[in-house]
Amino acid sequence: MGELAAAMGVQKGSLYSLTASKQELLYEALREGATAFHAGLDGIPEELPAGEKIRLALRAHLRVVAEQLDVATVFIREWRYLEGERRDEFVAERRRYEERLRALFREGRDRGELRSDLDEGAAALLALSAANWAYTWLDPGRDTDELADRFTAILVDGIRGYATR
Amino acid sequence: MGELAAAMGVQKGSLYSLTASKQELLYEALREGATAFHAGLDGIPEELPAGEKIRLALRAHLRVVAEQLDVATVFIREWRYLEGERRDEFVAERRRYEERLRALFREGRDRGELRSDLDEGAAALLALSAANWAYTWLDPGRDTDELADRFTAILVDGIRGYATR
DNA sequence: CTCCCTACCTAACGGTCGTTAGCATTGAGT
DNA sequence: ACTCAATGCTAACGACCGTTAGGTAGGGAG
Q1: Which of A36, A88, B75, B133 has the lowest tally of Cβ within 10 angstroms?
Q2: Which domains are delineated in chain B?
C-alpha cells in the first residue's frame, strides 16, 4: 500500500477513502484479469476448426499477458494471497477458464479434427502451462501472435518427422 | 523464520546459531534445487535418440517437482527474493539448466531425428513451461513418469492426425 | 579438570506494514 | 448559500518479522 500511495503521489492512509482494504484491491485486479482472459476466449468464432481455435486461444492468452503483465502476474501468481470466500470465487472462475480451454481440445478430438487417441487433459495442460509460464519471461508490450503460432505449430504437428507445409 | 523455529520446536532467535540469515537458508535451498534438477539431466545416457532423451528429461524434472515439491517451489517461484550476487549466481545456474534442456532439442534437430524446421527455442520453452508450471498443481509424491510420457507423446507427435502406434 | 564450542534461551531492537481516527479542503448539486 | 460526498492529510496503532545481545547448559577434546 505504501508503494501504491507513493506512485499515486498520495499518503498511505489516503488510500482508504478509495478502497476498503488491500484484499479488495487484490480482488479487483483478479476480476480484471478474469475478464481479460475470458474476453480473449469469447472472441473466438465458434465455427473454426479446432486447430485454429486453439491457435487463437493461445494468441489471446499471450496477448493479455504481454499487454497487461501486471494484471496477468496477479492472476497467475499472486491470487493465492486472496483470502476467504473471495478466494473460493476466484478459484472457481479460474477453473472455469481452464475448462473452457480444455473443451477446445476435447471438441476437436470428438469432431475428428484432432487425433482420436488424444489425451485432452494433458494437451490442454501443456498449452496452459506455456500460456501461464509466459508471465515469467515475456517482455511487456511485445507482439506475441507469432510466438503463439509457433507454440501452436509444435502442439499441432509435433517435433518429429518433417514439415507438412 | 518464526514458522521454521516453531516446526523445529525451538525459539526464533536460536536459529541464528545454526544459520547466518534467512537469505542464507534461501540460498541453500536453491542450491539443493539446482543440484536435484541438474542431477536429473546427468542421468540421461548420451547415446539415446533425441525423443527418448527429452522424455527422460521431462520425467526427471517432474520427478524432482513431485518428490521435492518444497525445494522445487523455491527453485521455481521463490528464488526472486534472493538478493545480491547470490541472486546473479542462481540466475546463471538456472540459465545453464534451461540451456541444457534446449540443447536436447537442437541436437535432435541437427542430427536429423527431429523435424528440420524445428524452432528449438519454442519447443524447449514449451517443454520447460510444462515442467515448471507443474509445481502449481502436482500432488506431492505422486508418480509422474506416466504423466511425463504423455507430455512427451504430444510434444513429439502433436495433436493432429492419427496415432502412429 | 578445564576449555571451549555448539545449541539453546530470553528479551528486545528497529523496521515495515495494513489500517484507523480525526480533521481539512473542495466542488458539484439542490 | 448550504450540504454533503469525495478526497486528501497527519499521526498513530498494533501486529509481525528478521536479527542481535547476552547469557546458560552440556558435552567432547586437550
Answers
A1: A88
A2: 21-156 (1.10.357.10)
